[in-house]
Amino acid sequence: MRIVFATDLSDANEAAIESRTCLDCLDNIGVTEVHLLTVVPDNVSSGLPGMDAATDAREALAPQRRVFERAGFDVETHVARGTPHRRINGLAERLDADMIVVGSRGEAPLRNRLIGGTVRNVARTAVRPLLVERIEETPDGHAVRKEHLFQNVLYATDFSENAARAYDFFPALTGATERASLLHVGGREDSASMRDAEERLDELASDLRDQMGIDVETSVRSGNPVEEITAEEERVGATTTLIGARGTSRLRRLLLGSTAESIVARGTNNVLLVPPEATPSR
């Protein structure tokens, strides 16, 4: 499996890269090739005479590269200039990457950080599955919010085609996932609709048990999807939320569903966002 790991060279992203547990999680799902990418905005220079911002960034990537190499991954480093989300998604598409990984600390007014708007823009335009890894401040600096990335996966579905595509990503997590929770959040549905949702989740759960040999539980709720998903994350102790993005476009730009966008933008759990299948160019 080949991934693009986007970093802004901050202490926060170093914390994610240096987490031995997170590196083990990537190894457990079959990641062998890591493309480490940092993006230098066009309007950023080093500010030092005779120095080049891209060269500085490439040198700054060296310690992070060594962490991946010591863990046994094949690593290439990339420095690009331009708009971060465009360069991240562009590299992933050019390399035919299996997944993009970005770190997120929430909103902050710092330049060139993979947070807030950048993560949302990556999610809106991604044509590859996107893992948003949550990072938090600690007394000693920064640390990943939840380790064992794929150990306990919460899958949220509305039974749409895009949700089914996210479900189809489960087999890629074999070797890392020990437990899955399947959730459907409906509106003010009648009892027959609720029973139908329960039966459909039960079928998916049985399929997962057969395919992956893991523990699976199901839950059907009614209410606000974002609130119910975040509540379920807490209840089941999920380490990653798996969800599908909505949107179709020949320009390969996603219009995220409000639920997916809110989970990416405001949630505190790691998120694995699976986009719709890209429309072949003509």
From TrEMBL:
Annotated coiled-coil segments of the chain: none
Domain of life: Archaea
InterPro entries the record matches: Rossmann-like_a/b/a_fold, Universal_stress_UspA, UspA
Domain UspA: 2-132, 150-275
Family: Belongs to the universal stress protein A family.
Family matches, as PANTHER family: STRESS RESPONSE PROTEIN NHAX, UNIVERSAL STRESS PROTEIN MJ0577
Name used for this protein in its record: Universal stress protein
